[in-house]
Design goal:
By secondary structure, this protein is of the alpha/beta class. It has helices at about 55-65, 85-95, 115-125, 130-140, 160-170, 190-205, 215-225, 240-245, 250-260, 265-275, 280-285; strands at about 5-20, 25-40, 45-50, 70-75, 80, 95-100, 175-180, 210-215, 225-230, 235-240. Helix 3 (about 115-125) packs parallel to helix 5 (about 160-170) and helix 4 (about 130-140) crosses helix 5. The structure holds adenosine-5'-triphosphate and magnesium ion. Magnesium ion binds near residues 56, 57 and 181.
């Protein structure tokens, strides 16, 4: 994949902090992201991996312009979006959507699924041409939810289903890039596998590109085209998935890879086939 939909160059984030010493207190900065550069392949998946606190979410939030950029630049479809404001920023927020880790805490418990899925459109003042309920039903079907459940509340759904609501909401504005920040991390392995399959399907059908953040490398291996390994705010190693997994150069990457449990693909395929033939088992699996 040669074309890239996003280009990140020397991206840096300094958070202001107060240093409290015994005899002094002074302002200083903490560099959470330090000169990070990589590309997101168009129609592909760029995974960011690394230990907790390595700066993955901060990087992604800057890319989505949810967080101010201290220095460096972000390009989206050939356009510099580092400091865009107003209508241009609105457009960026439409083009890049984020799915977060905890489906329940990222969905308002007092709102119906319909209201949640429509929230991005309401916020942007967009009226769906075919009407609200048609659009909600289409989106729910698209992510594998029962379209008749649009008047229910998040708590009435299982974790996997709730995450599908979050995905439907992210798709409402027809984004081109979806950032999944630990989007499947809180789910059970089997539910996780099916949400990943959904993400792959959506990528194919809607031509999406993903920025996929996960600490679980077994998951990353299933979905990533390219991988960026971060440690303490810096890129330790970056490259195509197979290169990172099969021939990691950096000692830190080698350590991360060594800790990945090996999935037996044959067993996994048999399990998926069983689930397809036994929808009831699949249904309880996700409840
Ligand atoms: N608003 C903030 N003010 C100060 N420091 C922050 C702020 N947000 C994040 N940090 C710090 O920046 C560093 C990177 O945080 P970040 O959330 O990007 O890490 P992460 O790789 O996503 O970690 P995790 O895997 O736990 O989600 C951490 O040390 C964090 O404490
Ligand atoms: Mg994070």
């Amino acid at each position: 994949m040669s074309d890239s939909i996003m280009k990140v160059r020397d991206l840096t984030k300094d958070f202001p902090v107060r240093e409290e010493g015994r005899f002094f207190s002074r302002k200083s900065v903490f560099r959470a992201v330090d000169n990070v550069s990589f590309d997101v392949p168009a129609g592909g998946t760029l995974a960011i991996v690394g230990e907790s606190g390595s700066g993955k979410s901060t990087t992604a939030r800057m890319m989505a312009r949810l967080l101010d950029i201290s220095s460096g630049s972000v390009e989206l479809e050939g356009k510099d979006i580092t400091r865009v404001e107003g209508a241009d920023l609105h457009k960026v927020r439409q083009t890049i959507q984020v799915v977060f880790q905890d489906p329940y805490s990222s969905l308002n418990p007092r709102h119906t699924v319909e209201r949640i899925i429509m929230a991005p459109l309401d916020y942007q003042g967009v009226k769906p041409p075919k009407g609200r309920s048609t659009m909600v039903k289409e989106l729910m079907e698209r992510v594998g939810l029962d379209p008749n459940a649009s008047q229910r509340y998040p708590r009435q759904f299982s974790g996997g289903q709730a995450q599908r609501i979050g995905i439907a909401r992210a798709l409402a504005l027809k984004p081109k890039v979806v950032v999944c920040d630990e989007a499947v991390s809180a789910l059970d392995v089997s539910v996780q596998a099916r949400v990943i399959n959904l993400l792959k399907e959506l990528k194919q059908d809607l031509g999406l590109s993903y920025v996929f953040i996960a600490h679980d490398l077994a998951v990353v291996r299933q979905i990533a085209d390219d991988v960026v390994v971060m440690q303490r705010g810096q890129v330790k190693e970056a490259g195509p998935r197979d290169q990172i997994f099969d021939a990691p150069q950096d000692a830190y990457t080698q350590k991360l890879i060594a800790a990945v449990p090996k999935i037996d693909p044959e067993w996994e395929e048999r399990r998926q086939r069983y689930m397809q033939q036994h929808p009831l088992a699949a249904a309880t699996d996700e409840s």
